[in-house]
Amino acid sequence: MDITLGTWNPGKVEWMSRGLAGTGLPIRRLKEGQVPEAEETGSSCEENALIKALAVAKHADGPTIVAAEDSGLFIEALDGFPGVRTARFAPGSDDDRSRLLLERLKGVPMERRHAVFVSAVALKMPGGFGKVFRGELRGRIAMEPVGDKSEGYDRIFLLPTGISLASLPLEAGEVRDHRRKALALASEGILSWLDERRGLI
Ligand SMILES: O=c1[nH]c(=O)c2ncn([C@@H]3O[C@H](COP(=O)(O)OP(=O)(O)OP(=O)(O)O)[C@@H](O)[C@H]3O)c2[nH]1
User: Which residues cross the membrane (predicted)?
Assistant: First the structure.
């Protein structure tokens, strides 16, 4: 048995591989052109992660566990926007999109700037079910970008301590808590599925 990662994003391949390494299973990446990219039409990260995992499972080689991830930033004062559209609600980079969010939040005081990063990791077991695991990181949106240790939404996301994510360095391939939690739960899900399966054989 092995795990196939449902993403073409090289950074995501790296951190998902690290996050699922504790399962002890070999990890396969998709081959060029192996799977047509799935349209992310879901209304939650969970739905989109499952859409990606099921699309890859249809084209996977042999029995494999497919793991796919979807994440987003949900801002309370904007009714959850950008949510599932975090990576693509406007052209340009995540830094450009962050600036647009700050403009939309102009005049909103700190006590109404609550936000949450959500990560969902979906697993599609061979011949069986799909299951989704969720991780969250709660905080607030800064008044202006802060920190230079990383880019994108990290610069506008403040932890409850008031420190921005971009002020905290990350080791190469390391991820923030929402992704780490979702991957840890998915790893536990894989290990218990393997245990159950061994019991049945
Ligand atoms: O600065 C950030 N710090 C974080 O901690 C964080 N967590 C999520 N995100 C953003 O959320 C979107 C996910 O998009 P996403 O899951 O659709 O990925 P993707 O389309 O690249 O990959 P794939 O799985 O479709 O291959 C992207 O804009 C990410 O930058 C973060 N940004």
Answer: none
Token pair, residue 84, equals: 């599932």
pLDDT tens, the chain, 201 aa long:
999 999 999 999 999 999 999 999 999 998 877 888 889 999 999 999 999 999 999 998 889 999 999 999 999 999 999 999 999 999 999 999 999 999 999 999 999 999 999 999 999 999 888 999 999 999 999 999 999 999 999 999 999 999 999 999 998 788 999 999 999 999 999 999 999 988 864
* CA dihedral of 125, 40, 138, 186, whole degrees rounded to 10: 10
Ligand 1: atom nearest CA of 155 is 1
Q: How many domains does the chain contain in total?
A: 1
CA distance 193 to 31: 26
Distance 118 CA to ligand 1 centre (A): 10
CA separation for the pair 123, 71 (Å, rounded): 15
- Quote the radius of gyration of the chain (alpha carbons, Å): 18
Report the chain's terminal Cα–Cα distance, integer Å: 14
Identify the domain containing residue 157 by its residue range.
3-200
What is the CATH classification number for the domain harbouring 127? 3.90.950.10
- Structure-token pair, residue 126: 């061979």
If you measure from the C-alpha of residue 87 to the centroid of ligand 1, how many angstroms do you get, rounded to a whole number?
A: 6
Please confirm, yes or no, whether 70 is among the known catalytic residues. Answer: yes
- Predicted ipTM > 0.90: yes
